[in-house]
From TrEMBL:
<dbReference type="InterPro" id="IPR050104">
    <property type="entry name" value="FMN-dep_NADH:Q_OxRdtase_AzoR1"/>
</dbReference>
<comment type="function">
    <text>Quinone reductase that provides resistance to thiol-specific stress caused by electrophilic quinones.</text>
</comment>
<dbReference type="InterPro" id="IPR003680">
    <property type="entry name" value="Flavodoxin_fold"/>
</dbReference>
<dbReference type="Pfam" id="PF02525">
    <property type="entry name" value="Flavodoxin_2"/>
</dbReference>
<feature type="binding site">
    <location>
        <position position="10"/>
    </location>
    <ligand>
        <name>FMN</name>
    </ligand>
</feature>
<comment type="similarity">
    <text>Belongs to the azoreductase type 1 family.</text>
</comment>
<dbReference type="GO" id="GO:0016652">
    <property type="term" value="F:oxidoreductase activity, acting on NAD(P)H as acceptor"/>
</dbReference>
<keyword id="KW-0560">Oxidoreductase</keyword>
<feature type="binding site">
    <location>
        <begin position="97"/>
        <end position="100"/>
    </location>
    <ligand>
        <name>FMN</name>
    </ligand>
</feature>
<feature type="domain" description="Flavodoxin-like fold">
    <location>
        <begin position="3"/>
        <end position="173"/>
    </location>
</feature>
<dbReference type="GO" id="GO:0016655">
    <property type="term" value="F:oxidoreductase activity, acting on NAD(P)H, quinone or similar compound as acceptor"/>
</dbReference>
<keyword id="KW-0520">NAD</keyword>
<comment type="function">
    <text>Also exhibits azoreductase activity. Catalyzes the reductive cleavage of the azo bond in aromatic azo compounds to the corresponding amines.</text>
</comment>
<keyword id="KW-0285">Flavoprotein</keyword>
<dbReference type="InterPro" id="IPR023048">
    <property type="entry name" value="NADH:quinone_OxRdtase_FMN_depd"/>
</dbReference>
<comment type="subunit">
    <text>Homodimer.</text>
</comment>
<dbReference type="GO" id="GO:0009055">
    <property type="term" value="F:electron transfer activity"/>
</dbReference>
Amino acid sequence: MPTLLHIDSSLFPADASASRAVTATFRKEWEAQHPGGTVIYRDLAADPLPHLDALAAAAGFTPADQRTPELDAAFALRDTLASELERADAVVIGAPMYNFTIPSSLKAWLDHVIIAGRTALAETSTIAGTPTVVVASRGGGYGPGTPRESFEFVINYLEKTLAEALSLDVEFVVPELTMARTNPAMADLVELSDASKAKAHEEAAAKAKTLAARFAA
């Protein structure tokens, strides 16, 4: 049975997080199609990873048979996280926009799993082609033609990192204007916010169903 890697990075609980709600919709549909499958779950807010340090970084560039015990210990977490990604048949990532980019917890995860010569910057990445759905929620609107288009550093960054550096097959689901119901200044955008939210849930469910069918074939 297929394995799903599910990553959330929102600071907020599911009832207050658009990204968590939509990744949950994806996972629910995936599990409905594969009730006997495996889900590897990482909540990077509840269980944050340490930032990459010099030893762990150096270990990633050192051949396994040349690592000292100290380097082996420093590399252990990176190996665990990369192995989870390598085991996954599909990935869903919640990536809310904080201060115009991804949460630092998600950046820490990326720093650990981007391993030159293995998952990244390799002739053949060990995770090349793995279908990955990113739920890139944001409180405002940052799409083409909007006043804050140039402030969008979530999709732009993740396209380069996930699709190009890691060779994953990436798609985005983008719930926008998520703060419209809590920010009085956005009161006239509530209808658009609700429509974006509904569309995001529909897209997430559809993508999960499509991917699940691919692995059932």
